Amino acid sequence: MAATPDDVLRLCRLTVRRRNFVLRDISLSVKAGEILAIIGKTGAGKTLLLESASGLCRPDSGMVLYGGQDICSTPLHQRNIGYLYQEYSLFPHMTAAENIGYGLKLRRTPKAEIRRQVSTLAERFGIGSILSQYPGTLSGGEQQRVALARALILQPRLLLLDEPFSALDPVTRRQLHQLLLEVRRDFGCAVVFVTHDFEEATALADRIGVLIGGQLEGIVPSDRLYTSSWPESVRAFLGLNMQRSDPHDPGIAVHPFARAL
Q1: How confident is the model at residue 215 (pLDDT cuts 50, 70, 90)?
Q2: 7-80+159-260 adopts what CATH topology?
Q3: To pair with 25 at 20 to 30 A between CA atoms, which of 47, 95, 159, 168?
Q4: C-alpha closest to that of 67 among 157, 152, 154
């Protein structure tokens, strides 16, 4: 899989072993401004894939190319990759403003410039009124917006999201879906997110990859998730084997969600 100039992230035959689990021979690429969703069951290796791409977990073999450069040996703080954890991981002893500006503080950015950038981003995300509050006083949606602002304030070219919307109520989830699309448009960064939610993946992503037991079975355009030719393990995961066949083509199973795509 040869790299192209537009690739922000490229994983080349990446293998990662963690205890008894193996993420095996993963190859994928993400271009600037693209949203890639990775779906799979719990334990399929989705979080490990993100951790390996970000540098939190060093691969046993293969390469992680960021902007065309192998960064497997690059220190984590020099990679400038935004990572949003499922549990947000905000510092509980810091205000929302301090959490958002933490990365700039580590870079020794002048305090006045930190305040300016934090204020600008907070207003953009609709959280300007909560900057003085601590994480424990914020709703799930507010914490998610703070965490997203913290990840984006360093202007990363790549944003990795680990089940970013799973703990949110339906209304907040829809609001943050829209925010993610706006982030892609306004910041131009590539986005990789993992999810259990098929509808969420098809609604937000340009392409979707299916991870089964540590193996990436394929990546397809989001509107072809239910109509692509998949191995039996993926068909079972997507529920295709339980669906009524298309009367016009008995060989193709039609998933209910596919009709809305």
Answers
A1: very high
A2: Rossmann fold (3.40.50)
A3: 159
A4: 157
